[in-house]
Specification:
InterPro entries: HDACs (IPR000286), His_deacetylse_dom (IPR023801), His_deacetylse_dom_sf (IPR037138), Ureohydrolase_dom_sf (IPR023696). This is Histone deacetylase 10. Keywords: Hydrolase. It comes from Macaca nemestrina. The chain is an alpha/beta fold. It folds into three domains: 163 residues, Arginase, Chain A (3-Layer(aba) Sandwich), CATH 3.40.800.20; 149 residues, Arginase, Chain A; 243 residues, Arginase, Chain A. The chain contains 19 helices and 15 strands. The strands form three sheets. Strands 8-7-9-15-14-10-11-13-12 form a nine-stranded mixed β-sheet, sandwiched between helices. Strands 2-1-3 form a three-stranded parallel β-sheet, with helices on both faces. A three-stranded parallel β-sheet has the order 4-5-6, sandwiched between helices. Helix 5 packs across helix 6, helix 8 runs antiparallel to helix 16 and helix 14 runs parallel beside helix 15.
Length: 621
């Protein structure tokens, strides 16, 4: 399965026929600029190209009234003055004799893509369409939108394919009120929109675009609005919204031509499985963003257990509270703030490489000491045969008694060879194996090798019985996160341990509420994931963790497994590291009280240094 690109050149036909400064920005170049950029980057050629079809009258009728569809059909025979008069009856709309054909193609493109994905013909895809749709309502055009393409696609997925839970993420500068109106009482569709709001002073100037609009009737809690009340929101603000609002709910239950074209390219690259480029800028959410996120969380809390647990559990310490003695909470060892959150450091050589160079030709490599015939890998995942030089391997192994045995030395040589390929930009991600008795020592060598060969900031997520190497420098270049410790402890801002959550809901809360905020705040250029003795993770949970961490460091993720791990675990990790979606975790569950307590304790301890942990603004005291 691959990635589909759905498009039709006829969608460039509709255009403004009279002077209207409000509508002139909606023009054919919105599509052609994006398509040209896809071709320049070689991305169109990597996709399965599908030509859009027209949506039928019955398919349009899934969300629009027959009278409205008939009205738009009649625009095909109207003259310019009649088209202008009709357009004036709606807000920010123009009609053209080609509008009906173009709008049917735009809606049909979404239907084609839904069918292709849900029948297994492709894994994912992008529909490049015009006119847009998310402002269109049941019987009204609005904001350049004629037919509500996404809403029609969602209704089609329910009717034809029997889906019962659909998530719509609406990422646009404007609120998609049309989608909200169409599904606000439907609990089968979770609608999430983040948009510029400015306390109602930005178009479409609607009270129902605010955070307290949460749906109605049976759909209460299935409309989620995140209104931005300040302009200039950055990467940190959007990542905070992902981690503290969108993803918890999802798991539980462009008119600027240059930026539009670039956004389309990045979307297609991600759908194709290419690693995401490193984020730029300080990873510190602004106060306005935190206010919006907290307002949305508070509005949604009555309907979502994951938010209820977090919001009602007392936080021991936070940047906005004081200790019982009246003193501010102490800062943990490691400095007053994360180095990545300080004035922007010069990018490391490896980060420069990730930003400037194309993705490596070898996406994922598996380095095993003895290939297993039962290991099933995707065709483009390479089984590594090379190994580091014997003399070099022995030099790295010499300080560690557990690496003296031949099997451990062989595994170490393969890991060093793989790691060098990743650091040199020849390989994007990889999986290596080591004997269980040598897991800690092998991980220590991997960290030291990474730091001495180009990595400036290294994130290590250690699962199971793996202690932080005692000789690892406390210089802020390594963030050590241990999931599987005996108790929750923040020994420094760069050394954090937490017990392995007992429930799937607790594991998700730990990843979204602790691991990812710390990781994005740290901004590593290399990620190590070590599944050590007694790690206790099932394959789907390990796959989800690897998939989530793949968004960091340009996808430079190395997973270290024990040699006696099942071939199925190596196979599933290889698939997610090359860009496939992780398998389902099974039935959803909430975190246990113990897991919530451990998580909130650590968040309280770490929030003063790691601003990405904040999900509510500072209080002025």
């Amino acid at each position: 399965m691959g990635t589909a690109l759905v498009y039709h050149e006829d969608m460039t036909a509709t255009r403004l026929l009279w002077d209207d400064p409000e509508c002139e920005i909606e023009r054919p170049e919105r599509l052609t600029a994006a398509l040209d950029r896809l071709r320049q980057r070689g991305l169109e050629q990597r996709c399965l190209r599908l030509s859009a079809r027209e949506a039928s009258k019955e398919e349009l009728g899934l969300v629009h009234s027959p009278e409205y569809v008939s009205l738009v059909r009649k625009t095909q025979v109207l003259g310019e003055k009649e088209l202008q008069a009709l357009s004036g009856q709606f807000d920010a709309i123009y009609f053209h004799p080609s509008t009906f054909h173009c709008a049917r193609l735009a809606a049909g493109a979404g239907l084609q893509l839904v069918d292709a994905v849900l029948t297994g013909a492709v894994q994912n895809g992008l529909a490049l369409v015009r006119p847009p749709g998310h402002h269109s309502q049941r019987a009204a055009a609005n904001g350049f939108c004629v037919f509500n393409n996404v809403a029609i696609a969602a209704a089609h997925a329910k009717q034809k394919h029997g889906l019962h839970r659909i998530l719509i993420v609406d990422w646009d500068v404007h609120h998609g009120q049309g989608i909200q109106y169409l599904f606000e009482d439907d609990p089968s569709v979770l609608y999430f929109s983040w948009h510029r709001y400015e306390h109602g002073r930005f178009w479409p100037f609607l009270r129902e675009s605010d955070a307290d609009a949460v749906g109605r009737g049976q759909g209460l809690g299935f409309t989620v609005n995140l209104p931005w009340n300040q302009v200039g929101m950055g990467n940190a603000d959007y990542v905070a919204a992902f981690l503290h609002l969108l993803l918890p709910l999802a798991f539980e239950g462009g008119y600027h031509l240059e930026s539009l074209a670039e956004s389309v390219c990045m979307t297609v690259q991600t759908l194709l499985g290419d690693p995401a480029p490193p984020l730029s800028g300080l990873m510190v959410p602004c106060q306005s963003a935190l206010e919006s996120i907290q307002s949305a969380r508070a509005a949604q809390a009555p309907y979502w257990k994951s938010l209820q647990l977090q919001d009602v559990t007392p936080v021991p310490t936070s940047p906005s509270t004081h200790s019982p003695e009246g003193r501010p909470p102490p800062l943990l060892p490691g400095g007053p703030m994360c180095k990545a959150a300080a004035p922007a450091p010069a990018p490391s050589s490896l980060l420069d490489q990730l930003c400037l160079c194309p993705a490596p030709s070898v996406r994922t490599t598996v380095a095993l000491t003895a290939p297993d015939i039962t290991l099933v890998l995707p065709p483009d995942v390479i089984q590594q045969e090379g190994s580091a030089l014997r003399e070099e391997t022995e030099a790295w192994a010499r300080p560690h008694e557990s690496l003296a045995r031949e099997e451990a030395l062989t595994a170490l040589g393969k890991l060093l060879y793989l790691l060098d390929g990743m650091l040199d930009g020849q390989v994007n991600s990889g999986i290596a194996a080591t004997p269980a008795s040598a897991a800690a020592a092998t991980l220590d060598v991997a960290i030291q090798r990474g730091l001495s060969h180009g990595a400036q900031r290294l994130l290590c997520v250690a699962l199971g019985q793996l202690d932080r190497p005692p000789d690892l420098a406390h210089d802020g270049r390594t963030l050590w996160l241990n999931i599987g410790g005996k108790e929750a402890a923040a020994l420094s801002m760069f050394h954090v341990a937490t017990p392995l959550p007992v429930m799937t809901g607790g594991f998700l809360s730990c990843i979204l509420g602790l691991v990812l905020p710390l990781a994005y705040g740290f901004q590593p250029d290399l990620v190590l994931v070590a599944l050590g003795p007694g790690h206790g993770l099932q394959g789907p949970h390990a796959a989800l963790l690897a998939a989530m961490l793949r968004g960091l460091a340009g996808g430079r993720v190395l997973a270290l497994l024990e040699e006696d791990s099942t071939p199925q675990l190596a196979g599933i990790l290889a698939r997610v590291l090359r860009g496939e979606a992780p398998p389902s975790l099974g039935p959803s569950s909430v975190a246990s009280p113990e897991d919530v307590q451990a998580l909130m304790y650590l968040r309280g301890q770490l929030e003063p240094q790691w601003k990405m942990l904040q999900c509510r603004p500072h209080l002025v005291v």
